[in-house]
Amino acid sequence: MATFSPDALTATATELANNGAELISREAACLLLRANDDMLPSLLSAAQLARARFNPGVVTYSRKVFLPLTNLCRDYCGYCTFRRDPGDPGAHTMTPDEVMEVVRAGERMRCTEALFSLGDKPELLFPQMRDTLRRFGYKSTLHYLEAMCEKVLRESSLLPHPNPGLMSAEWLERLSRVAPSIGLMLETASTRLLAKDAAHDNAPDKDPAKRLRVIEDAGRRKIPFTTGILIGIGETLEERVDALIAIRDLHERYGHIQEVIVQNFCAKSGTPMAHWPEPDRGEMLRTLAVARLLMPKMNIQAPPNLSDPHYADLLEGGINDWGGVSPLTPDFINPEKPWPHLEDLRQRTESKGFELRQRLPVYPEFREQAAARSDLLAERLSAAADAEGYARRAA
After folding, report:
1. FRET pair for 382, CA 20 to 30 Å: which of 1, 112, 294, 303?
2. How many domains does the chain have?
3. Residue 206 contacts by C-beta under 8 Å, 6 or more apart in sequence?
């Protein structure tokens, strides 16, 4: 397919809406990412028709607390302000009491998700982290994470969702028994970004092949999984499409990817990429629409706080989920970007013609898959979910 006119887009959208059978090609996706402003309305219409067939009328979110279990990390990404070295201002590893204090506060605010974010295997680089883990009584950061997930599961009404970085198949199995879903962002399919002075220079855990291996290992084990891409960090448009297709292909093979996040790069002062250009509204909408047309039957999410104050426009790109939003804790990865108030999120979602529904960290259609991992998970999910698999509404 060499060109894409508005009429051709409308025809593609109609075909998707009628039978959902045909996916756009890699070549077409690359062309659509270069669509000019005159073609953007037709592209967005195509994405909206595809979403309407998949999940009409409802947009979801997860009401969460954000738990930065440790911000020590052995990777040095060019855009990150979350990670710290030992001794840096703000360097911290949460104690079990600190974890549960936040979880209890989240319970009082009717949260259902405990999102664990942490640096990748910091004990391999820092003896201070090894000392901390030894003091807590654990062999590794993953052992500590596993224990905290189980503690949250047993001692609260919240459900954990860990984002621990690279992990072995054995660790996927272990964590899947104490968390209904697990996350790892692919971010990019580009190995070029591992080169000197690129976004993932000195970040060995961001090797796309290693991350795809984790996502595939999760698929082999039928573990509900969240992944996604980070756009605007130096990847070409072709590499962006390749990352989306890699995710889609793994899901088609294993049926386990519950959610695909399309996240926009935000420049942060004090980082090597502080003056890097950010994706604009049009680029974000094009990417969302192409993601929807590449994956018409998958849940696609974009974080609202990273597109404030015009985040409601993201719905025009075909997303059906806002991701985790916290009424209590900041976005520790993007602390300069506050979450929208939940009432504002509801009003803006409804203004676009959708009902806003609170989901659990595991999507309704993946709940049985998660419950099969352990009796404890089955019990906790049964207590947290309504008959449709969404979060139980407050009485």
Report:
1. 303
2. 1
3. 75, 77, 187, 188, 193, 194, 200
